[in-house]
From TrEMBL:
Protein keywords: Membrane, Transmembrane, Transmembrane helix
Organism, as annotated: Astyanax mexicanus
GO BP field: mitochondrial respiratory chain complex IV assembly
PANTHER family, alphabetized: SMALL INTEGRAL MEMBRANE PROTEIN 20 (PTHR34923:SF1)
Transmembrane segment boundaries: 7-26
Signal peptide (from-to): none
Domain of life: Eukaryota
Listed name of the protein: Small integral membrane protein 20
Pfam families, sorted: MITRAC7_Phoenixin
GO cellular component terms, A-Z: mitochondrial inner membrane
Length: 68
């Protein structure tokens, strides 16, 4: 096996491994927004953010919420 082919296969394997690791973390939620919105509604039911969030700290918006 030539040296260039071996380096290409190692690099390609690394890129494949990184892509496989990031897919469920980043790409799947972006392509299934409605599903994740429903899950967040269920998970956040009954939680008052003012009780959890310290006073004076900026509150980040829901990334899946449509912009008005």
């Amino acid at each position: 096996m030539s040296r260039n082919l071996r380096i290409t296969l190692i690099f390609g394997g690394f890129v494949t491994a990184v892509t496989a690791a990031f897919y469920p973390i980043f790409f799947h939620p972006l392509s299934h927004k409605e599903e994740y919105r429903e899950i967040q509604k269920i998970n956040r039911a009954g939680i008052n953010q003012a009780d959890i969030q310290p006073a004076g700290v900026k509150v980040w918006s829901d990334p899946f919420k449509p912009k008005s």
